[in-house]
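Reopening this one. Same input as before:
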Amino acid sequence: MNHVMKVGFGVALSLMMLASVAQADDFKLSNNQRISCSRGLSAGKLNTATCKSYAYLFNAKTSEYFRCQVSLALTRDNKEVINVQADGGCTRKARIFDTDGNYSFDATETEPPNTNSFFGPGGYAIWASDNTSQKIRGCITISSGLGSDISKCLDMTFQ
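Same output, byte for byte:
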């Protein structure tokens, strides 16, 4: 009897593990990464180059996404590299759709300085679609220049 209980417990545990795996979130990286670089001269004939790149990690089940940024700054003189600094991280953003589903996603970002960035460092566009129905939503986020970003999403109509 003890052996039967162990086997039964093992089967129940296996089913619970399979159920949790079946409901696991599916994360996908955006296909449209960008990089922008700038150079500057400092006092004493030092050269500094700074590059930033952005990518988006999308939860295909919940439509929640993360905006990720990595940057590298290199300072050198005429003979050697003096300083290298790197920074980065991801920021969680709101869901695009209210309910869980099976979604696709892509994003694009302006590359500052850019003629498209009127008020600040620019903005980005997010596109998400439902993989099981004809449903797509486009979102644009821009810097207001006043400390907060403005973001709006619209459902597309099909004609």
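So the earlier flakiness isn't reproducible anymore. For the record, The radius of gyration is 23 Å.
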